[in-house]
């Protein structure tokens, strides 16, 4: 599904990712942890496609194709989704219209016919019901005046609606109360079908109690310095990162 080889990424000539390697196979859930500033968001954003980050060398293959060559919209069309730490606000654009546009853009890429206003309303209402999200989120402007929890709900709604093959969550669990966290993890778990893969960037074990990761990685100074299974999360909770970052 995803193969990252010796990835180097710079921002304004500062090396942020330093020969990073990661393999994510079909259906796998990978958790990425690590101290602040270790490059987790840079990795996530580079995969989603951002102009701020210069890939200076290395390779990223996604479903056999060179991901780095694709524009962000093409990546979304190919099935990469990223839930941002700080979701975008779009005044004056209704959330339902925004979601319909996003879904139809991806359907076009998949050579599926677009959903009209009525079909989309049925489609998105089933997702709203599935996630137990208040329906008034659809009629408001995209993320404008949304609480932190509502923004996360909206992000997860978008993810569930787009049905991506690779879902990247960057600290989506930060600052969530237990009900919002359950909504996020329920969204992830309903998408899990053995064929979708997940990269979950987090600081906390909490989210990983609900979404069992197959692999846990720790980043430090722009690369993965330790990989293991869930027991690595326990060890970090108990001992912190000091033993990995010396
Ligand atoms: P993490 O998500 O692990 O906390 P980040 O990927 O956000 O780490 O940041 C890694 C390093 O890259 C930090 O030192 C940060 O200051 C730097 N960095 C990230 N994005 C930018 C940017 N747009 N401009 C300048 N420096 C950046
Ligand atoms: Mg951070
Ligand atoms: Mg970050």
TrEMBL record:
Q: Which residues form a coiled coil?
A: none
Q: Which InterPro entries match?
A: AAA+_ATPase, ABC_transporter-like_ATP-bd, FeS-cluster_ATPase_SufC, P-loop_NTPase
Q: Which domain of life is it from?
A: Bacteria
- A molecular-function term among this protein's GO annotations: ATP binding
Keywords noted in UniProt: ATP-binding, Nucleotide-binding
Q: Which part of the chain is the ABC transporter domain? A: 2-246
Question: What Gene Ontology terms describe where this protein resides (cellular component)?
Answer: cytoplasm
Question: What family does this belong to?
Answer: Belongs to the ABC transporter superfamily. Ycf16 family.
**PANTHER family in alphabetical order:** ABC TRANSPORTER I FAMILY MEMBER 6, CHLOROPLASTIC
Protein name (database record)? FeS assembly ATPase SufC
Specify the species: Moranella endobia (strain PCIT)
Gene symbol? sufC
